Structure formats: C-alpha cells, structure tokens
Amino acid sequence: MVKRVYTVVVGGGPAGLAAAIAFYDAGGTDVVVVERDQHLGGILQQCIHNGFGLQWFKEELTGPEYAQRFIDEVEKRKIPCETGTMVLDMREREDGTKSVYCLSPRYGVLEYQCRHIILAMGCRERVRGNIKIPGTRPAGIYSAGLAQRLVNLEGMMPGHEIVILGSGDIGLIMARRMHWEGAHVKMVCELMPYSSGLPRNITQCLEDNHIPLRLSTTVVEIHGKDRLEGVTIAAVDENKKPIDATREYVPCDTLLLSVGLIPENELSKTLCIAMDPVTGGPVVSEYRETSVSGVFACGNVLHVHDIVDFVSTESTIAGRAAARGGKPLASVPIQAAYPVRYTVPQRCSLSEPFTIYWRSAYPLENGTVVLKINGQTVLKQKFLRVVPAQMQELFITEKHLETLRGYELSDAQISLEVEL
Amino acid sequence: MKYDILIIGGGVTGAAIARALSRYSLSVTLLEAREDLARGASGANSGIVHAGYDPKPGSLMARYNVKGCAMYPALCHLLDVPYRNTGSLMLAFSKEQMQLLEKLYRRGRQNGVPNLEILGAESLRRKEPAASGEALGALYAPTAGVVSPYEMTIALAENAAENGVTVRLSEAVTAITPRQDGFSVQTTKGELTAAVLINCAGARAGQMSRMAGAEEIPMQLRRGEYTLYDRDLGHLVKHVIFQTPDANGKGVLVTPTAEGNLLLGPSSEVLEEENTASTQPGQDFIYRLGKKSCPQLPAGGAITSFAGIRAVSGSDFVIGPSKIQPRLIQVAGICLPGLTSAPAIAEDVCDMALAYFPQAALKPDWKAERKAAPCVREASWEEREALCAEDPDYGKIVCRCETVTEGQIRRALRSPVPVYTIDGVKRRCRAGMGRCQGSFCTPRVMQIIAEEAGIPLEAVRKAGPGTEIAQGALKAKGGTAW
Ligand SMILES: Cc1cc2nc3c(=O)[nH]c(=O)nc-3n(C[C@H](O)[C@H](O)[C@H](O)COP(=O)(O)OP(=O)(O)OC[C@H]3O[C@@H](n4cnc5c(N)ncnc54)[C@H](O)[C@@H]3O)c2cc1C
Ligand SMILES: Cc1cc2nc3c(=O)[nH]c(=O)nc-3n(C[C@H](O)[C@H](O)[C@H](O)COP(=O)(O)OP(=O)(O)OC[C@H]3O[C@@H](n4cnc5c(N)ncnc54)[C@H](O)[C@@H]3O)c2cc1C
Hints:
The complex is a heterodimer of chains A (about 425) and B (about 475).
Chain A: E1 2-4, E2 7-10, H1 14-25, E3 31-34, E4 50-52, E5 61-62, H2 63-76, E6 81-82, E7 86-92, E8 98-104, E9 108-114, E10 116-119, E11 123-125, H3 128-131, E12 141-143, H4 144-152, E13 161-165, H5 169-180, E14 184-189, H6 199-206, E15 213-214, E16 217-223, E17 230-235, E18 248-251, E19 254-257, E20 261-263, H7 266-269, E21 295-297, H8 308-323, E22 332-336, E23 340-344, E24 347-348, E25 354-360, E26 364-373, E27 376-386, E28 392-396, H9 398-405, E29 414-419
Parallel strand pairs in A: 1-9, 2-3, 2-10, 3-6, 10-21, 12-19, 13-14, 13-19, 14-15, 22-29
Antiparallel strand pairs in A: 4-5, 7-8, 8-9, 11-20, 16-17, 17-18, 22-24, 23-25, 25-28, 26-27, 26-29
Helix pairs in contact in A: 1-2, 1-8, 4-5, 5-6
Chain B: E1 2-8, H1 12-21, E2 28-31, E3 48-49, H2 60-79, E4 83-84, E5 88-92, H3 95-111, E6 117-120, H4 121-127, E7 137-141, E8 145-147, H5 149-162, E9 166-168, E10 173-179, E11 182-187, E12 190-199, H6 205-211, E13 220-229, E14 240-243, E15 253-256, E16 262-265, E17 269-271, H7 280-293, E18 302-312, E19 318-321, E20 328-332, H8 338-354, H9 381-390, E21 397-399, E22 404-405, H10 406-413, H11 422-429, H12 442-453
Parallel strand pairs in B: 1-2, 1-12, 2-9, 5-14, 12-20
Antiparallel strand pairs in B: 3-8, 4-8, 5-7, 6-7, 10-11, 11-12, 13-16, 13-17, 13-18, 15-16, 19-20, 21-22
Helix pairs in contact in B: 1-5, 1-8, 2-8, 10-12
Bound molecules: flavin-adenine dinucleotide (FAD) (2 copies).
One flavin-adenine dinucleotide binds next to helix 1, strand 18 and helix 8 of chain B.
C-alpha cells in the first residue's frame, strides 16, 4: 500500500513523539509516527524509576509517566501513529521526495511517500562481543536493558548473585533495582577511573544501598558451563590493560553489562547520511537537519543523552524545523577540540540563536570553555566541574551571532575548546 | 525399541548420514546428547566449503573433500541452506610461500580440484582489493564457498525426519552391549537395540568405540577460536582468504559468512578436555594474524566470539566398519574438512550400512527437498507482501537487527525437529544473532517459545538444562517497593 504524507517520524519514543508534537504545533500538518513496538513511549516504558522530567515538566516523574504525557499530547492532536510497524528502508528521489518502506501485520508492505523524514530510532546497548570478554558463553549474562525489561515488564528475576560491569546510568539503576528485589549485588565494576553515570545515580543507587563501586576494574574472564558461575575481575593500569597480579575470582550467577549505548543508525545509512564517528549519529545543523536535505534526526539516534528532558528539547527543534520546510544544511563546521569530545550540532548556519551541546572526554575541573571562530575567541564560559556523563550547554545569543557573522562564513572554522 | 540403524551424534556427519539413509525402507534413529543439533564441532567452525587442494592425494580426506565440495551448491539449494560460492584465495607473503602455493596447486590438480589458478600480486589485488598489499600472490580456488554449518546440519536432520528418521535430542548413549545381531544400547532415557550402529560422536567417537568393545581410536582435541563481526563489515572481503601454512602454523582466515557477517579465526590449541571458552591470547592471536591478510580489519565491530573443538585422529578420517565389531560403522576423526566432506561421506557410509540390509528398498515417496522458514530480510518487497498476505505474523518484526518476524520464529518452532530454546530459535532463523545479540528481542522470543511449547515463561531456556533465562518470578509480583 502506498500513502502520501508530508512528514514521517521514524520511532515513537520520547524523541519521535516530541518531534511530531512540535511539528504540529508549528503549523505542520500531515505527519505520521511509525513505531515498531506495539506501544508508543520507546525505552521509557521500562524505566519505571523516577527522576524524569525535572527540567521539562519541573516535577519528578517515572519513565512511563513522562512518556504518557507526550502520548496524551499526540492523541489530543490526533496525530496518526502506526504502531507494530517497522521501517526497513528509505529512498530519496531526484526531486527530493522520499519513500519510507515499512512492514506491518496490518498493511503488509507499506510505503510512505513524503517530503520530510524525522529520524528518532533511539539507541541499543553494547554487548559482550563488542567489548570482547573472553571465557565461556553460559546463560546469566544480560545487557542491563534486557535485565531491566525482564524485571520491570515481565516480572522475572534474572538472577540472585549479581556483578555489574559498567557504571553507566542503566547499570546503576539496575543495581538498585536488583538490590530492592532481594538480589545480592556484589559490586559494580568500571573500567575508567571515574563513573560514566550521573552523580545523583551514584549516590542514590549505589551509596545508599552500600553497593561497592570498583573503579579502574574490569571483568577479564567469564566462567561457568550452563549457568554463569563466576567472573574474574582485575584492576587495570592507566592504559586500561588488566594487571595480572590483581586478578580476583568473584562467584556470581548473573553479570549485567552496562557498557555503553550505540545510536541505531543502520536505517540512516540507507539514505547515505553523513555520520559523525564520535557520536555514532548523523552530522546535523542547529535545526537537526542531516546532510540529506529534509531529513532530520533527534534523540538517542543522534547522540546518546543522559536525561530524557534534553531529548524532548532537541526533538522540538527538529519538529519545528521540519514544519518550516527545513533549511539547507548550514555550512560552517563546528570543530570539537579535545578534550571536548563532541558537539551537537556539528554544523551551523548562524541564522538564529541556538545552543551547542557538548561532552568532555574525561572529567575536567576549574576550566573555561571557549568558542572561537578562525582562532578568534567569541565566547568564554567558566565551569567548576564537567563530567562526561553530563551533557553541557553553551548558549549562542544574538550578540555572539553578530560577532560570528562578521567573518567570511564560506571558509570560516568554528571551534569549541577547553582551557584549564 | 528395536531399530535397524542407530546413528550416534547429531553433528553434520550424523545428520548427512541420516538423510542418506532416509531414502530407504529402514527404521533409522539419530540420537543426540545435547538439546539441539550441531552443538559440537558442526556448530562452531569456519563454515568453509574447501576446494580440496590441502589433503594428501589418495587420502580419504582428499576424496571426500573434492566430492563434497562439488555436491554443496545443489544440496544447499535443495535444502534451502545459506551457501555462497565465494571462491578462496590463499595468500603468500614470501618466496618460500609462493613455492608452497605451487606445491598445493599441483596437489590440487592431483586431487581433481577444478580450475585452480595461481595469481600474481597484480591480479590478486584486482580480485580482492582488501587483501594485504604485502602479499606476493595467491592460490585461487573458484569452487570454494561458505555455508552456514549449523543450518546445514539442521536442514539435513529435518529432511531426514520428514522422510521418516526418528531424531531424538537430549538423549545420550551411556552404554553399548554387542549382541549377535547388533547392539543393545543404553541411553539417558532408556534402552534400545539396533542391528547397525553408526558412530558419529565427534569428540566422543573414541569413547563410543570403546563402549562397544571395538578398537581404540586415539583422539586429540584442538580448540579453534573465532571473532564474528557485524554485518556492516561483511563486505570487507569478497573471498575466503587463507594464509599459506608454514612452520609457524596454518595461519588464520578472514571470510564473509554465508549470512553476510565477517568471520575471523581459528586459533589452534591442544586441549586435555572439551572446552569451548574463548581466551584473551586466542582472540589477540587471531586479530594479529587476520590483520596481516587484511590490514583494513578494524579493531571494533566485533559482535561475538566463539570456539570449536577439532577432534583429530591421526592424519586422516577414520571411516568404515570396525574390524572387531563389524556392525559398528566408525565415522570418527572427522576434523577439517569434515563439514565439506559430510555429504560425500554420507553416501559411502549409507552403502556400507545397506550391506547389512539386502531387503532395503528405495522409498517411492522420498522427498529430497526441505524448505527453511522464509527469510524476510533477504526477501523482495513483493515476496514480503505475499508472505504477510498469507500470514500477518510475517509482518511482525521481532528481531530488529536481523529483520526476523514472528512468522519465521513460529515456523521454526513447528519444524520436524523443533527445539524450544532461545539458541535453537537463533540458529534456525537468526533472531538474536545480530548486533544487539538478543538484548531487545529475547523477552518476545521467550513468549513465543512458551506459547508454542506450552511451558511457563520462567521455564524457557537459552540452551540445555540449567540455562533458564529467568531465575523465577519477582519476590512480590505486582507490589514492589519502587
Ligand atoms: C535500556 C535503556 C535504559 C535507559 N534508562 C534510562 C533512564 O533510566 N533514565 C534516563 O534518563 N534515560 C534512560 N535511557 C535513555 C533514554 O532512553 C533516552 O533518554 C530516551 O528514551 C531516548 O528517546 P528516543 O526517543 O531517542 O529513543 P527510544 O526511547 O529508544 O525510542 C526509539 C523508538 O524508535 C522505535 N524504532 C526504532 N527503529 C525503528 C524503525 N526502523 N521503525 C519503527 N520504529 C523504530 C523504537 O521501537 C523505539 O520505540 C535509557 C536507554 C536505554 C537504551
Ligand atoms: C575450529 C574448527 C574449524 C573447522 N573449519 C572447517 C571448515 O571450514 N570446513 C570444513 O569442511 N570443516 C571444518 N571443520 C571440521 C568440521 O567442523 C567437522 O569435521 C564436523 O563438524 C564434524 O562433524 P561431526 O558430526 O563428525 O562431529 P560433531 O559436530 O562434533 O558432532 C558430534 C555429535 O555427537 C554428539 N555426541 C557425543 N557423544 C554422544 C553420546 N554419547 N550420545 C549421543 N550423542 C553424542 C555430540 O553432542 C555432537 O553433537 C572445522 C572444525 C573446527 C573445530
């Protein structure tokens, strides 16, 4: 079946929903949200803990509550949502129109012919194979997200004696969740000398429950034939190489991996969208438009967010821009100078005030973040402490824009640097 | 129960023999100790259909390899098994290695391998741009290919089952008593008798032979480790790329798999007992050597690692009726190139067994074909449309990474040899085999298995006993303190 719409939103998680709402509110009509799952809300549906929405709604909500507010808004606007429908392929034609090909039990093969696409497919977790932990391959090794789903949505215990590798937020949240369910969470191991989770999660999830956090430590071997029987852990040196003398056997029946998230961009590649190797997501302008005109990206598919409120902000930008018809990809690149790990957006047109989001490569203290154009400083902002887990914001106001626009933009180079 | 023929072992050898025997009016049973087929060497190997220039001329290996290789394309077509005729390249990095290629070339000709060719550096580069610029040349074998080894094994067994062979899983042979007209066999589930016993027990073939009071078959176990990369990297190389064996060992291979991933391995390490763990030194070794053949091999992009055990007995396969117990047919020491050879071995072993059953006749209704669940990922949009029209479950994607639908999973669970485990589903339709390794689809696959098998969700296992995914329900279902 072929349908014509103006804009297709791929993914009905918080990003897709916020983008669809913003698109509608900015006067856009004829938008459809395509969601693979049976339900809207994305990964938030399994995040039943609270702490969502402090920025966006100024109140503390659980994941499903946060998602529901957006679902309600979508329903209020009667924005059509095709659930249980997965986008498998996308094509762009010479005239700039696009086709989005989906598979659904209701329609079979469904093709949307459209002008704009908003990518909001979210991310997936890194798994054991990605980090190459040697040893046997027994049952009892779960990604933290899978364990979260088993516990929160299916009501099942993944195991009882638990080691968690990786101190990302999902790992921390799951440490507390398993502890509350009566499991013995023996430790959370983290390869880096600092946690990759939010400070509030370290306190609330680990410290409050007396769960030890072992920094600069990793799992070097997995034991057990059928079910996991134990893991060998070891401290790592400054090059992240395990130190043999520190090897230690820890009996356990469950290993949860919380070792990073990867934006899910296999679909984006069908349109040959330019990707940022650091974020794993598309390169975008301040309007979240990708290198393919009329294709926008927001949420975890663009870069991994630590809090969903930022996802909503970002998706609103994308939805609004799509409603305005999109802008051609802005031409001035923004260079992230190490230890600035990346920026979003990576390019900008300097037509309106906007925010540069950035992350550091490692924890930084008492420094200044500096925005330069062709080596000339435009903006400086001091900070006390910046950690990789927390996304940072830098506001580019009309005043800064005036300075920036004073340069010949066609060969200008903007960079974001840190001075310590 | 009384059978004409009992096959011990559900690897590719046992399954191929079962299929060959299923043509005849005989009662045949295949026993496999594990909960699924292809859990031994047949499930963890390189998946290469070798051309056959490697084995010594005149050996069983040479004969069965070349014949088996020629059988593969048509057989995989009949059985609906992923197979690609990629051709192979063996790279040489020195003058000595180039000379060795000459030797292998001549050996190949002697073995009857068709169309072998020695390529110089220039033509190698043209054929395989990803091969190392340091290679001086390569031996090109156009008949080589890649196959999914576990799907091959499963397909052979399913086809045998459809044609009347009884396939019994999770049942191990524990004792064998020779009798005048055959054997009485004790298993973990009971006792049965058979006029002829076929020993395809892989790493345990020596043990089976001993149990039956037949000759000693010395066995050496060697572990081979692999790294499997994302589908994204499946196009890095177009051919199977070997390294020329030398004093330092056989080298490792880099190859696209039949299903489009990139595979790197194997290492080779002698073991005292079966152990399929992967190791850091093993993984480092294959990466280092793989990089030599293919410098573009990235450090990232791996999605899993695994290891298989080669069961080696001397320098050749051990195939034929036992000298001491002639009603026991040995198919032992089936190491490399056993996967390639299996279909050819099966034909001969079938003839050996038939010698005991002069009354056996060909079944008029024997079905040579077997259909796998349709592959939605590979299907065209028209085919997908047709599948959904037939059954809307083919429109419900369960595994996002490999585009596997509920229809495929249900179909696999309703096959002639159903295996109600997460890994069983994975091997049959690839749900959970992709880049997220089941992180997203496991709960849904569990639900489908529970429904199809009529078991509670908590009882769903990854593989054999003791591998339940869930360890019971939450302590206070519905009312916890979060
Ligand atoms: C396991 C896990 C746990 C998390 N826990 C927390 C937490 O505790 N706190 C927190 O603040 N953040 C958490 N996050 C991050 C949180 O997910 C994000 O902030 C937010 O959900 C991202 O929204 P999104 O819409 O970009 O992605 P998602 O919520 O992942 O939504 C993407 C949606 O797109 C759909 N989709 C993808 N591809 C297709 C396709 N081809 N066709 C159709 N539909 C498609 C998916 O089914 C999904 O519903 C977690 C993330 C993960 C992966
Ligand atoms: C690392 C490696 C790489 C290889 N690469 C290739 C290649 O690229 N190309 C190629 O052609 N060949 C290759 N081979 C060889 C090939 O994999 C083997 O020759 C082939 O799989 C052997 O099959 P099999 O059925 O004889 O043994 P197996 O697959 O080991 O099957 C034996 C079966 O017997 C069962 N069993 C054991 N004891 C009992 C019992 N008591 N009761 C019931 N059942 C029992 C086991 O559970 C097992 O399933 C490779 C092998 C390895 C290990």
